[in-house]
Amino acid sequence: MLKNYFKIAFRNLQKRKAFSIINILSLALGLTGGIFMLVYSLDEFSFDKFHERADRIYRVNTVFVDLKSGSEAYNNDNGWPVGQVLEAEFPEVEKVVYTIGWPRMDVTSDNENFTPRMLYTSKEFFEVFSFETAKGDVSSALEKPYFAVITEEFEAKLFKGEDGLNKEFFMGDSIPVTVGAVVKNVPQNSHIQFDLLLSQATFNVMTGVTDYSEKGWSNINMGNYLLLREGVDQEAFKKKAKTLYMDKVGDMMRSWGSEAFLFFEPMEDIYLKSQAGNRFGPIGSIDRVYMVLGVCLFTILIACINFVNLSTARSVDRFKEVGLRKVVGSSRMALITQFMTEAFVLTVIGLVIAILLSNTMMAVFNDLVNKTYTLESLLKPEILIGITALLLIISLLAGYYPSMHLSSLQPVKILKGKFNPGSTGINLRKGLVVFQFFISVSLALGTLVVLNQLDFMQQKELGFAKDEILVINASRLSKNRIESLKNELNGISGILDVTYSNGIPGRPGWVGQIAYPEGREAENPVSVEFLSVDEDYLSTLKLNLVAGRFFDPERETDRTEGLVLNERAVKQFGWDSPEEALGQRIVSPSTTPQGTVIGVVRDYHQLGLQRSIHGIAMDWAPDYSYWLSLRFEPGQTSSILEALNQKWKTDFFETDFKYFFLNEDFERLYQAELRMSKMFRLFAGLTLLISLIGLLGLVSFMIESRAKEMSIRKVLGANVTQIVYTLSKEFMLLVVIASVLAIPVAWYFGKEWLQNFAYRAPMGLGNFFSVILLALLVTLTVVGLQALRAAFGNTVNGLRSE
Q: Alpha-carbon distance 708 to 714, whole Å?
């Protein structure tokens, strides 16, 4: 029996080629979205699930609550004593892991330089996390100073494919480090990514710190993870330990103008849900996952709607078959099975095409979601299970209503000719067409909002020069070498200015430094960004000085005491004007920033337009700097790169010449919005294409079923314009209804999305109406061409249709 079902299904596909092609194409496009949805969502939700005790692992975060505004700032680092106190005073804690990312150094082996992903960590790292050991003893390797654990991939790079266990490499050219263990490569679905782990003992020797309590609670730069004991009431522990800062150093925190609390973040939530970010690897977004899931599901749904619409509309081709089958004894269940089988066969063919399309479009999708999926990604067991489930679900969604509809036809009315199949399900089909275009137009309007905001951010004046500026990471160069190098670089033809700093636009300095106007410490603590700069920072970035002067290295007080603020910092410190700020003294618990204000620069967008401009305090402090920025003449890029490359070959390791252009790097801040705009454009176009394919099928059926009516109208004198209008008005009205419904939805969600930006483009209804007009024109083209074909058709053939 099953064989017969499939045989009849294939016969019907061959008999109704146009119907089959339209449905297969729609289902293939929908399934392509479904495959991408599976690959992406399963990957995103798999992060950190491989750790055996993930349900008991927490990352410790520090949350600062501003006493004035009540705003919260999440930090994934803690004061140095936090880990020790948690381990010593809370019996619920089984183990504490310490992690810190500085001091960062390049690595050399066999005269070749590398910049690994590295961090310093305690021996508990591998006792808590489930990273797989390849060789050596990971615990002992993280106990001794100048011992390290490296990955297999980094071992192959360092030692040219040879066994690296117990061999040495060098940090910063001169510090020998021994490889104590090698681990398997870090899984891509880990929020902690590393090539090199150095022992905590190494960090202690390099910094000269052995007792972390000596450093105090004010150094918020130590990372901690906890493994709680089995059977612990985790919620009770989090509540008890939350106030650790305020219990130990509450007065100090309040003097900073804030309160501080511990927030224990579940390991499995860090990648997708963290508000504190991630310094050691990738960071995802649960909102982005839901967005991808949503647009992919809508794509699938629109493809299923096409099948339902065309199947019910085309019931005219099947009604006699259904009547005869029922007369000769076929049950309704047998008919349902037959029609469901046909839906299944169409979906299987669509799936095969979808797999081919997925392979073709994989690079495009990778660019949208910043991943590196391949066709092999589809061969994972969980993906194969998901694709099978997707196949069955889509077959059910697409085939259920048509099979129930066709199997319910009454044979008596069919065989007596009293049944009009073209009139059944009209309202349903209209409703589904409206829904299809509602989704398509909504996505198109959403795309417009994203594109407008992206264009606004790219065109807005930022307050600094970002073109023709090349930035070099000079962290490996000694401070003495920097001064002479600046003079040498200034001598290269085409270079206009050179500056040395610890921060540049898009890559800030030390954010979150606490400072006060002297004498008002308790009254007005302010959080600012500390920038260490030299005297050429202003001219290189073309910042605008609005009061006072910039740093003059000839003045000793400028070098030792001078500070330059931006306008926002002036307001934060409580002064009414830049002129009033001049000569005022600022103090800080960390001494950065600390000194006397000698100048004020106009506000500029240091962190892009997503965030409000924040206070900045600049200090002449080259010892803290590592970015070397060069402004050069337009059109000199190639010659300057060649000169710099030769300079590095001669004086330094060639591999040390690592540079980027400031304008390109600053665009990195807008990558999320850029990817979102590409995604919306792709899926808006895809859903519109599927909708138009379905509409094409419906229009073709409508023209075929109304052929006699159109012929009679032509005989009675109707011209081509009237025929086209008659055939097109119904579908145009449906698209207008869908567009009217889409406007408030797109407006609401557009407004909500724009709240993520401190500076945002205005939303205009005029732009919305232009998108809707475009959708109407495309629809009119599809419907009108078919209507024109009918209008110019042979009238005699139409009258002979019955």
A: 10
Widest CA span in the chain: 107
Report H helices in 460-604: 479-490, 537-541, 556-560, 567-572, 578-581
For residue 517, what is the enclosing H or E element?
Answer: strand 510-517
CA 621 – CA 598 distance, rounded (Å): 15
How is residue 30 written in tokens? 């929908």
Give the three-state DSSP class for 94: strand
Q: Confirm if 78 and 223 have CB atoms less than 8 A apart.
A: yes
Report how far residue 439's alpha carbon sits from residue 212's, in angstroms, rounded to the nearest whole number.
57
CA distance 550 to 598: 7
What is the C-alpha to C-alpha distance for residues 784 and 732, in angstroms, rounded to an integer?
10
Exposed (0-12), middle (13-18) or buried (19+): which is 175, by Cβ within 10 Å?
A: middle
Is residue 704 within a helix (H) or strand (E), and if so which, with residue range?
Answer: helix 671-705
Write the CA distances from 791 to 114, 502, 701, integer angstroms: 72, 73, 15
Helix (H, G, I), strand (E, B) or coil at 130: coil
C-alpha 324, offset from chain centre: 57
Residue 679, pLDDT > 70, answer yes
Among candidate residues 498, 481, 492, 497, the one with its CA nearest the CA of residue 628 = 498
User: Is residue 738 packed enough to be buried (19+ CB in 10 Å), middle (13-18) or exposed (0-12)?
Assistant: buried
517-526, 613-622, 762-771: lowest mean pLDDT where? 517-526
**Residue 11: predicted pLDDT:** 67
Q: How confident is the model at residue 301 (pLDDT cuts 50, 70, 90)?
A: confident
What Å distances lie between residue 289 and 37, 272, 292, 754, CA to CA? 9, 9, 5, 18
Is the model's pLDDT at 211 over the cut of 80?
Answer: no
Q: What are phi and psi of 370, to 5 degrees?
A: 60, 50
In the predicted model, what is the mean pLDDT of the chain? 84
Q: ∠ at Cα 754 (768, 434), nearest 5°? A: 40
Buried b (16+ CB within 10 A) or exposed e, 72-95: ebebbbbbbbbbebbbeebebbbb
3-state secondary structure 354-412: HHHHHHHHHHHHHHHHCCCCCHHHHHCHHHHHHHHHHHHHHHHHHHHHHHHHHHCCCHH
pLDDT value, residue 571: 93
Coarse DSSP helix, strand, coil percentages of the chain, rounded to the nearest 5 percent: 55, 20, 30
User: Pairing mode, if any, of strands 112-114 and 72-75?
Assistant: unpaired
Tell me the pairing of strands 616-620 and 526-533: parallel
User: β-strands 196-199, 258-266: how paired?
Assistant: unpaired
What digits encode the pLDDT tens for the residues 717-758?
A: 777 777 777 777 888 888 899 899 999 999 999 999 888 888
Question: Residue 284: pLDDT above 70?
Answer: yes
Q: Is residue 389 over pLDDT 70? A: yes
Residues whose CB falls within 8 Å of the CB of residue 319, separated by 6 or more in sequence, listed in order: 406, 409, 414, 419, 421
pLDDT tens digits for range 91-105: 999 999 999 887 778
Other CB atoms within a 10 A radius of the CB of residue 563 amount to: 25
Tens of pLDDT along 123-172? Answer: 999 999 999 999 999 888 999 899 999 999 999 999 888 898 999 998 87
SS3 596: strand
CB atoms within 10 A of CB 383: 17
Q: Which of 14-28, 232-246, 381-395 is most confident?
A: 232-246
Summarize pLDDT for 568-607 with one digit per residue, the tens: 999 999 899 999 999 999 988 778 899 999 999 999 999 8
Query: What are the tokens at 511?
Result: 């954010």
The H or E element that residue 259 is part of is strand 258-266
Paired strand residues for 220: 79
Q: Which pair of structure tokens corresponds to residue 730?
A: 């119904």
